[in-house]
Amino acid sequence: MISSSFRFDSHQFQSRMRSAFEPRKPRHRALRFVLGVIGLGLLALLVMFSVALGAAMLVGGLLFKAWRGRGKLDKRPGGRRVVDAEYRIVGKPVLTR
Q1: What sections of the protein cross the membrane (predicted)?
Q2: Where are the alpha helices (DSSP H) in 1-97?
Q3: Which residues contact 42 (CB under 8 A, 6 or more apart)?
Q4: Over the stretch 28-65, which tens digit does the pLDDT of each residue have?
């Protein structure tokens, strides 16, 4: 059972949660500058890593596609894709009352 002296203070709770997860800038100018440069460097490193990973995936896909198609001989005559079929023209349906 909760005693009557306990009261939930939402303002205090929100203040503590905000201070726990909100990054604070240091007061010293040089330290702020150094941390900013470190942050930009980390961002540039992550972008370069993602671009390199994407390029490697594209190259790997192209190499796999080329390797998979290697050694297959085209057994169709002339090596072309020919569709042989018979067609008939179907008229528009007539609506009757």
Answers
A1: 33-64
A2: 10-21, 29-69
A3: none
A4: 999 999 999 999 999 999 999 999 999 999 999 999 98
Structural domain count, the chain: 1
- Residue-number span of the structural domain to which 19 is assigned: 13-69
Q: How far apart are CA 50 and CA 90, in angstroms?
A: 54
pTM assigned to the model? 0.49
| pLDDT tens sequence across 72-88 | 655 555 556 677 888 88
Residue 78 lies in a domain: no
Cβ density class 11-40: b for 16+ within 10 Å, e for less: eeeeeeeeeeeeeeeeeeeeeeeeeeeeee
